[in-house]
Write a structure and sequence with these properties.
The complex is a heterodimer of chains A (291) and B (390).
Chain A lengths: L10 E4 L4 H13 L3 E5 L7 E2 L2 E4 L2 H8 L3 E4 L3 H13 L4 E4 L6 H11 L5 E3 L5 E4 L3 E4 L8 E8 L3 H12 L4 E6 L10 H10 L5 E7 L4 H12 L4 E6 L23 H10 L3 E2 L6 H10 L2
Parallel strand pairs in A: 1-2, 1-5, 2-4, 5-6, 6-7, 10-11, 10-12, 12-13, 13-14
Antiparallel strand pairs in A: 3-4, 8-9, 8-11
Helix pairs in contact in A: 3-4, 5-9, 6-7, 7-8
Chain B lengths: L4 H10 L7 E4 L2 H11 L3 E5 L12 E4 L2 H11 L3 E2 L9 E2 L3 E5 L3 E12 L4 E7 L6 H7 L4 E5 L8 H10 L5 H19 L2 E12 L4 E3 L3 E4 L8 H4 L9 H8 L4 E4 L4 E5 L2 H13 L6 E4 L7 H12 L5 E8 L4 H14 L6 E7 L2 H11 L4 E2 L3 H12 L5
Parallel strand pairs in B: 14-16, 16-17, 17-18
Antiparallel strand pairs in B: 1-6, 2-3, 2-6, 4-5, 7-8, 7-10, 8-9, 10-11, 10-12, 13-15
Helix pairs in contact in B: 2-3, 5-6, 10-11, 11-12
The chains are: A alpha/beta (291), B alpha+beta (390).
Chain lengths: 291, 390
């Protein structure tokens, strides 16, 4: 009933002893996530929040069997943290950090091509499989276990959409924030592939925004490879061109980056487009009724 | 972050890229002196953070000191309106005085990050002097691209391929390759988001020359480039956006409506503006308050709204995650204590520490319009801005 993380996830937190790392690790543990290790260079051998802390990801994995990493490493050191986790053989890295230089990520992506690591983020709320595992900073209580997959470039807008779904009694299989940067580790297409394969996901909600062409690529995939219905909303219809709207990746630099172009592509691919951000839940409900 | 043409040319010159002889002037007298030093026909170029200067009258030529003086006085102290600036224009306080070049051909060259391949890409075209977006739409076959592997950097064979694509000949092939290598080195060394030479010209005596130069930088990487940070010219940016940044609100964009918006999260902030429009209103700004450790940014946001005479109503829409609802509520109460807020305020709160936040607002006794959800909030604030109260 989920992708990427579930009850078998053994989570490691990179940057566990920092203030954000501490706060959110505590929340993940309270949600029921199995946090098995933390990594902070120089603090190996200690315990934090009752979790053993190691100096390196390699050692932490060897001693605890961690199979996913959640990162709260500050921007200047975050790329290094991703490379460390990938080199140690981590299968999933979820990077929360906002503000990583683009050229650092160019190097990371180049390196990840030769590795089996899947990167989610950076600049994202993380991954949540309701009732099983919370690997991120999202509010746990608004989620409900179920069979709708959610993918989004946003954080708080996703919370709003998830609570719309939950209040209508529509549960979620997994909710994934792929992040607001220009070069996310995983794209809409990467995640749609996983949802298409996941037997317990019946429909997918996709929350896109202005900038880049990831939504158009998703539309291609939806039209040729998806058998499951997709509901979409694209934020930024009112955004002026050339202005960065908070997210590093949310900037219209060409006509393809506009919300209208993305909506057109997804609509032509057969996705149900929510008329406004407050009606994503209702649009999903209508789609589910036809199944 | 953007910089001026004269600054970009100075950087390019340091990396061996040939640029026209020239200097910066801020008065007619200085410009006349520079022109005399150059000793031939000159071009006088307004230094602004906007393209489209030529068509807008921001670039003038002069052959004698009288014309130089006249051109400079027509530019300095004025506001230049181009298709990229909006109707209010951008102030011109400096001009670049350069030797005029005898241009045989105008080419295009740039580097940016391709979001799909996640690699730097160098683009070259014979259609120089035009906007590359237009070329890409009308004749994509005229644009040559080379994707650059960050592990090995820009290679000479890639330079040759692009140079032959540009139909340059003889020794120019080597010159073009060296120029491209220099441009890639700047791009990497300085964390550029865009490095563009448009036009890159071939002169009548068959030399390559960067006639214009544009460098934009990755805001996320500025922390490691103090030298670049110092080049910023705040005069060229939107005053409200500068004000916001000085008050710690990094994600503020001026829009053209009359509803002040305070939201947490960029996606939600964009969606709020969209929903306001859907309900028949217009946002005066995009504002992502970010993650809060204290109430200062909330108070400062209200200061911005009250000082902005365009604003007729305020919407606060918070879905607490990293940002806690109680901190936002405290900030709103403090704002009411510190200033007179003669505007209707619609508040919608959800998420982390909601009950505590609601209690703080209720006990404060401040008069605000409560909204139960996202749609309700947008609908109510649009009505309030139109003077229709419930």
């Amino acid at each position: 009933m989920s992708i990427l993380v579930d009850e078998n996830t053994r989570l490691l937190v990179q940057g566990i002893t920092g203030s954000e790392g501490s706060f959110h690790t505590q929340r993940c543990i309270e949600y029921g996530t199995r946090v098995v290790a933390g990594v902070t260079p120089g603090k190996g051998g200690s315990k934090h929040l009752d979790v053993p802390v190691f100096n390196t990801v390699e050692k932490a994995m060897a001693e605890t069997g961690a199979n996913a990493s959640l990162m709260f490493v500050p921007p200047p050191f975050a790329a290094d943290g991703i490379l460390e986790a990938a080199t140690a053989g981590m299968r999933l890295v979820v990077c929360i950090t906002e503000g990583i230089p683009v050229l650092d990520m160019v190097k990371v992506h180049r390196y990840l091509k030769c590795k089996s690591t899947r990167l989610i983020g950076p600049n994202c709320p993380g991954v949540m499989s309701p009732g099983k595992c919370k690997a991120g900073i999202m509010v746990g209580e608004i989620h409900l276990p179920g069979s709708v997959g959610v993918i989004s470039r946003s954080g708080t807008l996703t919370y709003d959409v998830v609570s719309q779904l939950t209040s209508l009694g529509i549960g979620q299989s997994t909710c994934i924030g792929i992040g607001g940067d220009a070069l996310p580790g995983s794209t809409f297409v990467n995640i749609l592939e996983l949802f298409e394969e996941d037997q317990d996901t019946k429909a997918v909600v996709l929350i896109g925004e202005i900038g880049g062409t990831m939504e158009q690529e998703a539309a291609e995939f939806v039209s040729h490879n998806m058998t499951k219905p997709v509901v979409a909303f694209i934020a930024g219809s009112t955004a002026p061109p050339g202005k960065r709207m908070g997210h590093a990746g949310a900037i219209i630099t060409g006509s393809a980056g506009k919300a209208s172009e993305k909506i057109k592509a997804l609509s032509q691919a057969g996705a149900a487009i929510a008329p406004n951000p407050a009606e994503v839940g209702l649009t999903t409900q209508k789609v589910l009724e036809t199944l | 972050m953007k910089i001026h043409e004269y600054q970009a040319k100075a950087l390019m010159a340091q990396y061996g890229i040939p640029v026209p002889r020239g200097k910066l002037a801020s008065t007619a007298a200085e410009a006349i002196e520079i022109a005399a030093e150059i000793g031939c026909k000159v071009v006088i170029k307004a230094q602004v953070y906007a393209g489209g200067r030529g068509k807008a009258g921001g670039i003038k030529t002069a052959s004698n000191s009288e014309d130089v003086g006249k051109a400079v006085s027509q530019l300095i102290g004025t506001k230049l309106v181009t298709h990229q600036t909006g109707p209010e224009g951008v102030p011109v306080s400096k001009v670049l005085v350069e030797e005029a070049s005898d241009v045989a051909r105008e080419l295009y060259l740039s580097i940016l990050i391709d979001r799909t391949s996640r690699l730097p890409v160098m683009m070259a075209s014979e259609a120089g002097g035009m906007e590359i977006e237009e070329v890409a739409q009308s004749s994509p076959d005229k644009i040559f691209k080379s994707y650059i592997d960050p592990a090995i950097g820009f290679q000479p064979f890639q330079g040759r391929k692009l140079a032959y694509g540009l139909n340059v000949e003889g020794s120019q092939v080597g010159d073009a390759t060296r120029l491209m290598t220099g441009l890639y080195k700047i791009f990497i060394d300085k964390d550029c988001s865009l490095a563009e030479i448009n036009p890159l010209v071939v002169t009548a005596d068959e030399k390559l020359l960067a006639l214009d130069a544009k460098l934009n930088f990755d805001d996320n990487a500025l922390y490691r480039h103090k030298d670049i940070q110092e080049l910023q010219d705040k005069e060229q940016e939107e005053p409200l956006e500068i004000q916001a940044r000085d008050w710690g609100i990094n994600n503020y964009v001026k829009m053209d409506g009359d509803i002040g918006c305070m939201v947490n999260g960029a996606g939600l902030a964009m969606a709020v503006n969209d929903l306001i429009q859907y309900c028949g209103g217009r946002a005066a700004n995009f504002l992502d308050i970010g993650t809060l450790n204290n109430t200062e940014r909330v108070v400062n946001s209200f200061k911005m709204f009250v000082a902005d005479s365009r604003i007729k109503a305020i919407l606060v829409n918070i879905f607490g995650g990293m940002a806690r609802v109680d901190v936002i509520a405290k900030g709103i109460v403090e704002a009411y204590q510190q200033m007179n807020i003669p505007l209707p305020v619609v508040i919608r709160l959800a998420g982390t520490n909601l009950e505590e936040g609601q209690r703080i607002l209720a006990e404060s006794g401040i008069g605000f319009i409560r909204a139960k959800d996202f749609y309700d909030a947008a609908n109510k604030v649009v009505k309030a801005a139109k003077g229709v109260m419930e």
